[in-house]
Amino acid sequence: MISICEVGPRDGLQNERDVLPAETRAELVNRLAATGLPRIEAVSFVRDDAVPQMAGAEEVVAAIERRDGVEYAGLVLNEKGLERLNATSLDRMNVTLGATDSFNQRNANASLDEAKERASAIVGARPAKTTVTISVAFGCPFEGPVDPGVVSGLVDHFREVGAEEIVLADTIGVATPGQVKSLISDTSAQGFHGHNTRNTGYANAYTALEAGATILDASIGGLGGCPFAPKATGNIATEDLVYMLEGDGGETGVDLDALVAISEWLETVLGRPLEGQLYRAGLFPSA
Predict the structure, then answer these.
(1) Given 226, 229, 254, 259, the catalytic residue
(2) What's the pLDDT score for residue 286?
(3) Across all residues in the chain, what is the average pLDDT?
(4) Radius of gyration of the chain (CA)
(5) Which domains are delineated in the chain?
(6) Predicted structure pTM score
(7) How far lies 221's CA from each of 68, 125, 152, 265, in Å?
(8) How far apart are CA 245 and CA 32, in angstroms?
């Protein structure tokens, strides 16, 4: 069984121009949970003024209709975010930091060493059901290519401090399959978070599985990007990923028709076409 972590309610919506009400964001989480997705990253505990699209995280969590078999996660960057997450009923914590100084300065107002120290303290305070996502693991918009040795060192460090799971993120969509294969294989990272900015996202996700990853991040409709990274466009679309994996004999346990229906609904909510392809092209063979 291939595990998919749905990041649309967090990484997807954080890059949208419009700020959706908390009840709409919770409805999105509830619709996604009904498809059989095993994990949903529902919210981000960041400052409202920094990322207004993520304001009211506690309200979103309170409005979620919990389903058995679904793990609900929240993203944190600092100790304040940890405090807020601990006050909710969320199951999993996702701690994120960048692999370069410049990205951490833009994203969290910290150097790489400071971000590493901060993330280590957070993981140490709550090691169970904790994911560490290393952003810009393959390339940084401010510093260019990233040394794989730096990423490997970060993976080793966070395993030592107790992180249950490591995800490598191609935050700006610059990686190629060979690079993904090499870094996943060398680090034994459990997860891959890919963006399709340069149309390599799906090939990278497939390669990550072949290299040993067991969980893939994806975003409904291909929503997403990073507000702190220029030209960082959407994630790989969840429904497109499921279509590819199941068409090739993989099992995801996800209702593909239901995913397509959510993208159709989201198109009306956001008032624009989404980046995903499948919801527009239709399933094959058609029903």
Answers:
(1) 226
(2) 78
(3) 96
(4) 17
(5) 3-281 (3.20.20.70)
(6) 0.97
(7) 24, 35, 31, 10
(8) 18
Please report, rounded to a whole number, the percentage of residues in the chain having pLDDT higher than 90: 91
Q: What average pLDDT does the segment 102-131 reach?
A: 94
* Residue 10: Cβ within 10 Å count: 27
Question: What is the structure's pLDDT at 228?
Answer: 67
Residue 145: count of CB within 10 angstroms of its CB: 10
Task: List the end-to-end C-alpha distance of the chain, in Å, as a whole number.
Answer: 25
Query: Is the model's pLDDT at 34 over the cut of 80?
Result: yes
C-alpha dihedral over 92, 94, 95, 101, to 10 degrees?
170
pLDDT at 232: 73
Length of the chain in residues, anyone?
Answer: 287
Q: Indicate if the pLDDT at residue 70 is higher than 70.
A: yes
pLDDT at 287: 62
- For 10-55, give the DSSP string: IIIGGG-SS---HHHHHHHHHHHHTTT-SEEEEEEE--TTT-GGG-
Two structure tokens written together for 260: 């397509």
For residue 98, list its beta bridge partners: 135
Look at residues 220, 212, 255, 187 and name the one whose alpha carbon lies nearest to residue 13. Answer: 220
Q: Is the pLDDT of residue 108 over 70?
A: yes
Can you tell me the mean pLDDT for 223-233?
Answer: 76
User: Catalytic: 5?
Assistant: no
Question: Would you call 286 helix, strand, or coil by DSSP?
Answer: coil
pLDDT at 273 over 80: yes
- How far CA 112 is from CA of 99, 108, 116, 119, in Å, comes to 7, 10, 6, 10
CA distance linking residue 87 with residue 98, whole number of Å? 26
Query: How far, in Å, CA of 63 to CA of 40, rounded?
Result: 14
Assign 75 to helix, strand or coil. strand
Q: What is the 3-state secondary structure (H, E, C) of 82-108?
A: HHHHHCCCCCEEEEEEECCHHHHHHHH
